[in-house]
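hey m, so remember when u said the tokens were messed up on ur end? i reran from scratch. heres the input so u can diff it against urs
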Amino acid sequence: MTEFACQLNEMEFGIAPTDSRFRPDQRLMEECLWDAANLEKVRLEEKQRNSEKRWERGEEDMKSVDVLSVQSRQIYTPLWFQKGMDEIIPKTSSYKYTEKYWEQKKMKLWNMCPKIY
């Protein structure tokens, strides 16, 4: 890994708990613990799959998202982006950044974030 890449992944105070810099498998890779990193990556992926299945069945509290019931299906709404019509390409939808991340970071208020690690 280059010095530049390592600096990009350096921890920063006050970031969201969902920031990829908190990924335990990433930290293990940085320490060259490849086997442990791979096991942790598999564990995280399995946790995410199980969490999604529980959420789809209505068993998991997704406190960090707006959930709408549409024809008995739940729709996930991202925290920091909002879906709308694309401003450049006609009749196309895209996600636009809402600036809410920086407001939350300033207040150090992350209670709406899911525990993904």
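this time it looks ok to me. DSSP finds four helices and four strands in the chain. if urs says something different then somethings off w ur setup not the seq
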